[in-house]
């Protein structure tokens, strides 16, 4: 693992949960400013051997409790966390218990709610008629993607069919479906203390859950990105647009201030200016643009939905 670049703040590396997005060409401009690490849940790394029969897999809360040890090992004092699905939940849970160590969160396809009785019953019924692979596919992709059997769907099916650690994946899947409610409440005691970007694909399996999560967060600290035509895995199908959004997100936190504004951030600033109904709002929109270019942290971004 390399040292932070001279232009980056060493105390703020980026912890991510999806390697593919960070292999995208346009993301290289961003990650050169940070130390990037990828954290796998136990037994989820490629080629991992199956756990012995009877192995008690950690709960998602227990996985979140492991993060401080990881940060201590790599000598990080704070992070910008990026998680997908179960990884997003784990990072969210960690952020709630260790708010002083998290500078920002990008949560893709997060479901902050525990399963209700109806969900639990439906899950059990599905388990009787579907294989673990089929259930995971329904979790990852939209109905339309599955019916069209897209190339990405075919690739994921092939990965699952040849996964030597499929028993481990089943244990992780069980832990995810047994998660506790995050109990987020707008204006309440349980809420994120850092900027948050929520991301979901339009018509994705997790769309309703992410929309509900957005309604529970502080609108002055939260950005909501709903991506059209991206299916259930926007970080894979729309990496360019998500990269633009992420760049704007870290610029809003005071990083990469010398970097040019992206197309998405210019569009967002223009939208704020055009939508403002009073001089105070128009002034705030101009300040948002000027502060990013001058290097000073801009004021908190308003909650908004951006369809890409």
UniProtKB/TrEMBL annotation:
SUPFAM superfamilies: alpha/beta-Hydrolases. It comes from the Eukaryota. InterPro entries: AB_hydrolase_fold, NDRG. Residues 271-308 are annotated as: Disordered. Belongs to the NDRG family. This is Protein NDRG2 isoform X6. It comes from Gekko japonicus (Schlegel's Japanese gecko). The gene is NDRG2.
């Amino acid at each position: 693992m390399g040292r932070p670049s001279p232009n980056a703040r060493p105390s703020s590396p980026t912890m991510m949960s999806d390697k593919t997005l960070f292999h995208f060409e346009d993301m290289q401009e961003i990650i050169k400013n940070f130390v990037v690490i990828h954290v796998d849940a136990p037994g989820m790394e490629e080629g991992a051997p199956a756990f012995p029969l009877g192995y008690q897999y950690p709960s998602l809360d227990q996985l979140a409790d492991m993060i401080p040890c990881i940060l201590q090992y790599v000598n990080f004092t704070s992070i910008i966390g990026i998680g997908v699905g179960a990884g997003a939940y784990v990072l969210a849970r960690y952020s709630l218990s260790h708010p002083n160590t998290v500078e920002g969160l990008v949560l893709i396809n997060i479901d902050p709610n525990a399963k209700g009785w109806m969900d639990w019953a439906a899950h059990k019924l599905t388990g009787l008629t579907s294989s673990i692979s089929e259930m995971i596919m329904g979790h990852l992709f939209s109905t339309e993607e599955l019916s069209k059997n897209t190339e990405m769907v075919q690739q994921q099916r092939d990965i699952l069919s040849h996964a030597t650690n499929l028993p481990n994946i089943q244990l992780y899947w069980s832990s995810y479906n047994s998660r506790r409610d995050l109990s987020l409440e707008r204006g309440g005691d349980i809420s994120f203390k850092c900027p948050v970007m929520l991301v979901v694909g339009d018509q994705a399996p997790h769309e309703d859950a992410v929309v509900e999560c957005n309604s529970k967060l502080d609108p002055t600290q939260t950005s909501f990105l709903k991506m059209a035509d991206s299916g259930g895995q926007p970080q894979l199908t729309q990496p360019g647009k998500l990269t633009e959004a992420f760049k704007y997100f870290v610029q809003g936190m005071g990083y990469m201030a010398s970097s040019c504004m992206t197309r998405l951030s210019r569009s967002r600033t223009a939208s704020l200016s055009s939508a403002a109904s009073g001089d105070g709002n128009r002034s705030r929109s101009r300040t948002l643009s000027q502060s990013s270019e001058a290097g000073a942290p801009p004021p908190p971004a308003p909650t908004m939905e951006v369809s890409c």
